[in-house]
Amino acid sequence: MASRRGDAPIGLISAIPQEISHFGEAFQEADVAEIGGLAFRSGALGGRAAVLVEAGIGKVNAAIVSTVLCREFGARVLLFSGVAGGLDPALGIGDVVVARTLIQHDYGAMVGERLRTYQPGAVPLPGVDDSHGYHLDAALEQKLRSALDGVSLPGLSAAATGGAPRQPAIHFGTVVTGDAFVNCEATRLRLFEQFSAQAVEMEGAAVAQVAERFAVPCVVVRALSDLAGAESHMDFGSFVHDAAAGAAQLMRRIAAAL
Ligand code: ADE
After folding, report:
1. d(CA 201, ligand 1 centre) in Å
2. Which domains does the chain show, CATH number per domain?
3. Taking the model in full, what pTM does it have?
4. Separation CA 77–CA 7 (nearest Å)
5. Which of 8, 43, 106, 157 could in theory staple to 178 by disulfide, Cβ–Cβ 3.0 to 4.6 A?
């Protein structure tokens, strides 16, 4: 196992090529290691030692690469940059959510035809403390806020929004994670009501679970590619590239500040 030294790398994860591709120019690659069929690319990102990996989609892929980054590369922090579906009607496509809280919305017990969520690994039975989620430490949140202070994202044209042009905003909020792409208005509403969450994606809280296990911090930045409703499969295709670029722009700033 690699030790976690002062010069230990940042572990930077995305799920799909459209998300990781935006780090290409800022990343100087020095070496590539293939582990479990995945390419772990070591080098420098904004002057910081970093290992980049495209994990593939879903919680298990995220947990595999997070574990390898901690165990084989001694990563000192795990970062995830990518896109998400919006849950909060106050947010629009292109807006970015920096996760203050990450929750696995699909771990728990089916009770009365509803999933009652528990902290991953907890026995999902009544009587167990049902407070759950992974929370950004206050000092790290302050560091992220400072790193993002004054940063503005590229504006969205009227053609892109289908309405008025808008300036994407940066929010700190709750992101929920599960192994399903949400393409359903009823589910979007349920997740919003149940968790007061801003966004849904398929990896972040799994990265946070591994980060907690290895006692390293975790930062998840997600830009909205869609609004998780009946049109989300269409919007995802139209906006994944630009949304992922926004998340990566902010993540490059964050990586330089950590
Ligand atoms: N990632 C991007 N959009 C998503 C959605 N609608 N559901 C889950 N993950 C997503």
Report:
1. 5
2. 10-257 (3.40.50.1580)
3. 0.95
4. 12
5. 106
